[in-house]
């Protein structure tokens, strides 16, 4: 199959991919760019393990063609924090035991990141609804919800003191 | 005490040992997207394999034409049974003593069965190749109902063993019959039932479901022909057993096989079995000379690998008029699918189903289980369960409710009346188990009090009246459950898998500076072993948990063990960890005594050091001892500080708990709303309360899924109707309630630190709690039994059948 060029920004870096038109964004990220944080759990948009941020929206990268991301600004879990400066969400997930096997975690945190951009002070119900597109088989969500609410509070505190 | 020595409590706290809610060391990589799961592995030249799968549940394979597939760009090879036969790898042994086709050999026996394996440059080219393989099938009659499988004119499913009258577990009475397994005294039980005041009888069905971890199964095989070494990375809950099995069936010497379980994205029993994909990736790597990856997709996972449950349990329970249980009889028809691939210890073809007397002092009991072949996927794995204990707990917790209805008694009161009493432990059950320890009444009373049980019953009665008056269309259900688990398989004397005794192991190396690495025979799939086992060790050897690296899953480096499932890691490998720690300490004591110039018996252990008895200012810390072990010539003591322990537990452990669910049910829509879930667990000594609570939350959510909607369903043609996450229910954060947890602590008397294991308890106890809540809501209207899963449609139908829509 003839390949095509796709240019996008991934975690702040410009990339130029040469890939098949049918390549899914998740496979372009994982296999061509080596960004293996986002995972494949279902390939049908149900589980959200592949969630990435694309042009300011959460998308399930298993159902987006890489070609559709032409010119897009993409952020994955790898772009949210660094080992020396973790994102508050990353810290809170650890603090509140919001993960177990870790497979859903990159998608879950990336989704939570966008949720808190959209709604910086959500209620518990809004958090639960806001992450309903991301499945977790291990935690029962209770600690994930706690971590996100706590992260929201901390982020708001930081904004106020800034 | 030396003034510079901090107080005991302070030094103890600095260890983050037993009982502390230590934050997980795994989380740094997982929260930053740096986990390393099978599909993250990318080796130079690696190819990708994918399966051609059967669209039919039962068909003869007339021909397979791979010519067009081989012509697809990027396709390197297409394997069929004919290619595997010369290597004798077209069939493989199952964990249950049966055998299973790796690739269709003449016929297919379930929908999505593996027919051919296409190896290509990448997963896209492999999919192109799969689509181009031409298979000609001739459909055969299908059996999906296990009760029809033994009819005289039933089609013979397993032609390969049609004439064998003897199977791995005794006589077979029909070509579609696998085994009959019995436990207990039939004659005595029938006599008790015949004479009883009251006998309640019911068929309890625990439907077919699936563990469905978020990461599917997969493997990467790399045959290094230069050195003759095979390395396989895979989603293996038992890597060492996989190595031995791989060696036995491939003929490759065991020392030339290296099995690595990297990070695993949840297992829940799904990743215990050996699947055709693993074998095909290995063969394909041998054939092509380059590494080959296989990763199944979600539908492959749900339709072909490792179902769980599917037990039809016919029960009879007898009691005196005032509610003292006298006997229990259970006959189970077990639908095993096309191959008996249950993951059970060899001597237990129905697992620990004979724990079905539950938490109750039932003097006489009998259990028989018949395993049956049908045209469904093979499996029968323990989905967050210790070998059928989930089925057993659901059975007895339903039968108690059924008996309470028959007696006209409150179901909580009936339980209290029949609980095994604290002073009866160790307790010998009628079906042969020795329960190690328990205190059921204390936890139960705590739970009833926590939910305000009496008030709930009053509210429920008022609700029934209001419903009858037409003032409400919602009913209130109070779901009670008291479970006793049997975990930690197990004693080598009666537990093995394929002849491998179910001990487990830990090996510790203390480094000169006092930090350490410990390796275990188990493998975490999210349980946080690297965090908790370091805590056990920290307390045993007095080194901070943060100074202890924990490693599992690489058979070239870890000591042999039987892996992680059946809540066995803490009871078995956790015990090995404590024992290995004690060996370290014993050697450290000799070194310390030498350094302090006193006799071994003149020093004693004090949190993180040995001190001279009566002279606490004279001591050697573990750190000092470690360094000395590497640089001092100590007479009679070998240099270095290492230990290994292989632990064969003397008994299983028996965690227990009291769970209560309060549920609102809308009679007109069949929808449910969970108002409260209270879960009190007793898992013995608590290693990390934070992780225990996380396990309980997760297990309860899986229980919620199973009870309220999750199933692997088949139509009459044997088509799977729930093969995607569109149809297979996994609760989201919206359907999942908040849980209240509590605990009591009754240590196991035979475990070195008294721990019992907790991972599976919430699934074992949760399913009956949710299901009993649904049943209880309708009790006042005459419902005795309705089968799970209790999805809206089934609940609506229940209401309809009871005339509540009139």
Short synopsis of the structure:
Chain A is of the alpha+beta class.
Structural class of chain A: alpha+beta
Largest contact between chains: A-B, 59 and 57 residues
The CATH topology name of the largest domain in chain B reads Aldehyde Oxidoreductase, domain 4
Mean pLDDT of chain B: 97
Per CATH, the architecture of the largest domain in chain A is Roll
Helix content of chain B: 25-40%
Low-confidence stretches of chain A: none
Strand order of the largest sheet of chain B: 3-7-1-16-13-14-15
Descriptive report:
- The complex is a heterodimer of chains A (162) and B (806).
- In chain A, 35% of the residues lie in helices and 15% in strands.
- With 162 residues, chain A is of the alpha+beta class.
- Chain A has a five-stranded mixed β-sheet with strand order 2-1-5-3-4, with helices on both faces.
- Chain A is globular.
- The termini of chain A are far apart.
- Chain B has 806 residues and is of the alpha+beta class.
- In chain B, helix 17 (689-708) crosses helix 18.
- Chains A and B meet through helix 1, helix 2, helix 3, helix 4 and helix 5 of A and helix 2 and helix 17 of B.
């Amino acid at each position: 199959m003839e390949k095509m060029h796709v240019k996008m920004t991934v975690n702040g870096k410009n990339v130029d991919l040469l890939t098949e038109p049918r390549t899914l964004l998740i496979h372009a990220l994982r296999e061509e760019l080596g960004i293996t944080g986002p995972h494949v759990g279902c390939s049908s948009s149900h589980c959200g393990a592949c969630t990435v941020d694309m042009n300011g929206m959460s998308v399930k990268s298993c159902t987006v063609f890489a070609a559709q991301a032409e010119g897009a600004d993409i952020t994955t879990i790898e772009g949210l924090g660094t080992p020396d400066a973790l994102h508050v969400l990353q810290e809170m997930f650890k603090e509140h035991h919001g993960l177990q096997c870790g497979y859903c975690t990159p998608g879950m945190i990336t989704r939570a990141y966008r949720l808190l951009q959209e709604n910086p002070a959500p209620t518990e119900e809004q958090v639960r609804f806001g992450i309903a597109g991301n499945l977790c088989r291990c935690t029962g969500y209770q600690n994930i919800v706690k971590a996100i609410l706590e992260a929201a509070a901390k982020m708001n505190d930081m904004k106020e003191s800034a | 005490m030396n003034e510079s020595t901090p107080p005991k409590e302070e030094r103890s706290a600095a260890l983050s040992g037993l009982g502390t809610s230590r934050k997980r060391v795994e989380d740094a990589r997982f929260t930053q997207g740096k986990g390393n799961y099978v599909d993250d592995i990318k080796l130079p030249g690696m190819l990708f394999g994918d399966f051609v799968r059967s669209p039919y549940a039962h068909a003869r394979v007339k021909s397979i034409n791979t010519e067009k597939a081989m012509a697809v760009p990027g396709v390197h090879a297409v394997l069929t049974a004919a290619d595997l036969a010369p290597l004798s790898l077209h069939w493989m042994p199952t964990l249950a003593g049966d055998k299973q086709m790796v690739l269709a050999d003449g016929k297919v026996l379930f929908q999505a069965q593996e027919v051919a394996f296409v190896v290509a440059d990448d997963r896209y080219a492999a999919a192109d190749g799969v689509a181009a393989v031409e298979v000609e099938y001739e459909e055969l009659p299908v059996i999906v109902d296990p009760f029809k499988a033994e009819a005289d004119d039933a089609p013979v499913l397993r032609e390969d063993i049609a004439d064998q009258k003897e199977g791995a577990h005794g006589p077979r009475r029909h070509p579609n019959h696998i085994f009959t397994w019995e436990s207990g005294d039939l004659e005595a039980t029938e006599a008790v039932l015949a004479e009883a005041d009251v006998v309640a009888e019911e068929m309890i069905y625990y439907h077919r479901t699936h563990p469905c971890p978020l990461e599917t199964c997969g493997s990467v095989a790399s045959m290094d022909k230069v050195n003759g070494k095979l390395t396989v990375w895979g989603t293996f809950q038992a890597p060492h057993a996989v190595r031995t099995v791989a060696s036995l069936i491939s003929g490759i010497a065991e020392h030339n096989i290296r099995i690595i379980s990297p990070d695993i994205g949840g297992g829940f029993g799904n990743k215990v079995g050996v699947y055709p994909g693993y074998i095909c990736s290995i063969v394909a790597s041998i054939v092509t000379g380059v590494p080959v990856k296989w990763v199944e997709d979600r539908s492959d996972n749900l339709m072909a690998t490792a179902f769980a449950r599917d037990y039809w349990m016919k029960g009879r329970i007898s009691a005196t008029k005032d509610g003292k249980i006298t006997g229990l009889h259970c006959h189970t028809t077990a639908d095993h699918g096309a191959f008996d691939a249950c993951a059970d210890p060899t001597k237990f073809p129905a697992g620990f189903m004979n724990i079905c007397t539950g938490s109750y002092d039932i003097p006489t009991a009998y259990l028989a289980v018949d395993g049956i072949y049908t045209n469904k996927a093979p499996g029968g794995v323990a989905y967050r369960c210790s070998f059928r204990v989930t089925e057993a707990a659901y059975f007895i917790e339903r039968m108690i409710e059924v008996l309470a209805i028959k007696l006209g008694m409150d179901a909580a009161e009936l339980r209290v009346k029949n609980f095994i009493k604290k002073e009866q432990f160790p307790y010998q059950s009628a079906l042969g188990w020795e329960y190690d320890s328990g205190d059921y009444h204390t936890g139960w009373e705590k739970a009833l009090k926590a939910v305000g049980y009496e008030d709930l019953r009053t509210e429920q009665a008022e609700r029934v009246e209001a419903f009858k008056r037409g003032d409400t269309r919602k009913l209130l259900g109070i779901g009670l459950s008291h479970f006793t688990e049997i975990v930690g398989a197990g004693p080598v004397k009666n537990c093995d898998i394929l002849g491998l005794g179910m001990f487990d192991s830990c090996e510790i190396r203390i480094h000169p500076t006092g930090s350490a690495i410990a390796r275990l025979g188990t493998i975490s799939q999210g349980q946080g072993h690297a965090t908790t086992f370091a805590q056990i060790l920290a307390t045993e050897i007095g080194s901070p948990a943060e100074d202890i690296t924990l490693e599992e899953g690489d058979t070239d480096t870890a000591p042999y063990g039987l892996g992680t499932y059946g809540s066995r890691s803490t009871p078995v490998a956790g015990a090995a960890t404590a024992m290995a720690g004690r060996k370290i300490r014993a050697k450290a004591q000799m070194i310390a005594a030498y350094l302090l110039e006193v006799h071994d018996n003149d020093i004693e252990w004090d949190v993180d050091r040995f001190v001279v008895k009566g002279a606490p200012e004279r001591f050697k810390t573990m750190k000092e001892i470690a360094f000395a072990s590497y640089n001092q010539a100590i007479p009679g003591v070998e240099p270095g500080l290492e230990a290994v322990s292989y632990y064969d537990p003397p008994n299983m452990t028996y965690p227990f708990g009291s769970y209560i669910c309060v549920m609102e049910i809308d009679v007109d829509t069949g929808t449910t709303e969970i108002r409260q879930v209270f879960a009190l667990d007793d898992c013995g000594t608590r290693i990390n309360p934070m992780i225990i609570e996380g396990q309980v939350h997760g297990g309860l959510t899986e229980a919620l899924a199973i009870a309220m909607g999750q199933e692997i369903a088949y139509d009459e043609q044997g088509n799977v109707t729930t093969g995607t996450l569109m149809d297979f229910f996994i609760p989201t954060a919206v359907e999942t309630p908040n849980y209240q947890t509590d605990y009591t602590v009754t240590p196991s008397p035979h475990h070195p630190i008294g721990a019992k294991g907790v991972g599976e308890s919430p699934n074992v106890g949760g399913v009956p709690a949710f299901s009993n809540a649904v049943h209880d809501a309708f009790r006042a209207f005459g419902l005795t039994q309705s089968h799970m899963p209790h999805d809206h449609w089934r609940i609506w139908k229940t209401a309809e059948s009871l005339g509540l829509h009139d």
